[in-house]
Amino acid sequence: MGRSNKPRSQARRHAFQALYQWQLAGGTSHEVLAAFLADAEGPPFDLAYFTALVDKAIADPARWETLMARWVTRPPGQLDPVEKSLLTVGLVELAECPEIPYRVVLNEMVELAKLFGSAQSHAFVNSVLDKAARVLRPMETAAAPARGKRG
């Protein structure tokens, strides 16, 4: 799967990048959004969705770190900033955006991990978000056919 130019996919990518910058530089949600939007380039993106993802992530970082800690063996503070940003966007979507199919969330975060992360980031991100989806979206994941399993 190649890079997507769909507005919502671009919003996810920008949210990941904004959260990465936030981890390094800090700031309020408003400051992060303003700084990011001042420099935003590339294809059109869903501004409302981007803003909602960043706002939700920055409004309660402890919530996302607590969730992350359920499925990650390292403390969230020791995670690579790329991986932590991707996991945060994925967890926000899984927890707060039930209209987005969980497989879309996983696929898009894995693609971004392949693009921006280290060699094994995509497998790590997929594993954590898959486990999270089973807890945060039990009805949806139970109804989905298992992939890669013979039966």
Key descriptive features of the protein:
151 residues; mainly alpha; N-utilizing Substance Protein B Homolog, Chain A; 8 helices
Care to describe what's here?
This protein is mainly alpha-helical. The chain has a single domain (7-138), classed as NusB-like (N-utilizing Substance Protein B Homolog, Chain A, Orthogonal Bundle), CATH 1.10.940. It has helices spanning 7-25, 29-39, 47-59, 61-71, 81-96, 102-116, 121-136, 138-143. The longest helix is centred in the N-terminal third of the chain and has 19 residues, at 7-25. The relative contact order is 0.13. The mean pLDDT is 89.
Q: Could you please say which CATH topology applies here?
A: N-utilizing Substance Protein B Homolog, Chain A
**Mean pLDDT value:** 89
**Largest sheet entry:** none
Structural class: mainly alpha
Count of discrete structural domains = 1
Q: For the record, what is the CATH homologous superfamily label?
A: NusB-like
Number of helices in the DSSP assignment: 8
Written as H for each helix and E for each strand, in order along the chain, the element string is HHHHHHHH
Rounded to an integer, what's the Rg over CA atoms?
Answer: 15 Å
| Residue share in helix | over 70%
Based on DSSP secondary structure assignment, what is the total number of beta strands?
A: 0
- Strand-residue fraction? under 5%
Q: What low-confidence regions span 5 or more consecutive residues with pLDDT below 50? A: none
In CATH terms, what is the architecture? Answer: Orthogonal Bundle
General shape: globular
Oligomer designation? single chain
CATH class: Mainly Alpha
